[in-house]
Automatic annotation (TrEMBL):
This is Binding-protein-dependent transport systems inner membrane component. Belongs to the binding-protein-dependent transport system permease family. CysTW subfamily. It is found in: Cell membrane. It is a multi-pass membrane protein. It comes from Mesorhizobium prunaredense.
Length: 305
């Protein structure tokens, strides 16, 4: 008898097929990730879409003209003030990422290879300074970097010098120093995790084959810890581009970053479309920078090997 002659499937067969579908791994996987996906969609994707939509509109005093325009992007990319702030922000971010990784790697290496049974204690001690308020740490650096200014002001009052100096404060260098300290722990931890995953027998094998400490580090340890270095660089670079508190407190006029201009557009300037265009432009450029950083580190990793 053919399948057509058998007639429609019974109710029991339909229920069995439905249950089998609901119990299948793809459906269970979708059911598992759906709450997280919806959460990310509502709290992450939708706000970005709103910002992108605003970037194509125009601010008319207290109202927003929703006519499509690229004028905000033209201003963001061509006006010297915004272009200079953007390049300064990218420069500061890259310098902070570089110095943070360079300073964090030896610390993570020491804890991983020489920490012994006290590794947890070392990690605990590293995180202690970050229990305090971020603003308090920034203000502490403001006092430290401004010390020579205070000293020179005192000498000015005594008539020893003609004018005070704050060479270490209110410039890009002050922002780089402060942000490097602020993000140090966030670079140490991923590098430490990456170093912990390295099979120590590979290092011993390199030494048995005649590699010295430096050569075995460059050929084995450093390439295998590259994922941690990449993670640390990205973790530091991406947020520092959008930092506006630190430049405001220790940067002065010479240390202002693009985030300060964006904050001004959403605040006193009250030009949300321009602020949105600056935000989107910064996000796109940072995305390209992050991709370029990964490619450069991966290329260097292959060359070392």
């Amino acid at each position: 008898m053919t399948a057509a002659a058998e007639g429609p499937p019974t109710l029991g067969i339909i229920r069995a097929r439905r249950n089998a579908l609901l119990l299948s791994e793809p459906v269970q996987g979708l059911a598992l990730i759906s709450p997280t996906f919806l959460y990310a969609l509502v709290l992450l994707v939708l706000p970005i879409l709103v910002v992108v939509a605003h970037s194509f509109w125009t601010q008319n005093y207290l109202t927003i003209d929703r006519t499509f325009t690229l004028e905000n992007y033209r201003a963001a990319l061509t006006e010297p003030i915004y272009r200079d702030l953007l390049w300064r922000s990218l420069y500061i971010s890259m310098m902070v990422s570089f110095f943070t990784v360079v300073l964090a790697y030896p610390i993570a290496y020491f804890i991983s290879f020489h920490g012994g049974r006290h590794k947890s204690l070392w990690l605990f001690l590293i995180t202690i300074p970050f229990w305090t308020s971020y603003l308090l740490r920034v203000m502490s650096w403001k006092v430290i970097l401004g010390y020579n200014g205070v000293l020179n002001s005192s000498l000015l009052g005594l008539g020893i010098i003609d004018e005070p100096s704050t060479a270490l404060l209110y410039n890009s260098s002050a922002v780089i120093i402060t942000l490097t300290h602020a993000w140090a722990a966030f670079a140490i931890l991923p590098i430490f995790v990456s170093l912990e995953k390295i099979d120590r027998t590979l290092i011993e094998a390199a030494k048995d084959l005649g590699d010295g400490p430096i050569r075995s580090f460059l050929r084995v340890t450093l390439p295998l810890s590259a994922p941690g270095v990449i993670s640390a660089a990205l973790i530091v670079m991406i947020p520092t581009v959008g930092d506006y508190v630190t430049p405001k407190l220790v940067g002065g006029k010479d240390g202002v970053m693009i985030a300060n201009a964006i904050q001004a557009q959403f605040g006193k300037a009250s030009n949300w479309p321009l602020g949105a265009a600056l935000s989107v432009t910064t996000m796109l450029i940072v995305t390209l920078m992050a991709g370029a950083t990964v490619v450069i580190i991966r290329t260097a990793q292959r060359l070392v090997r």
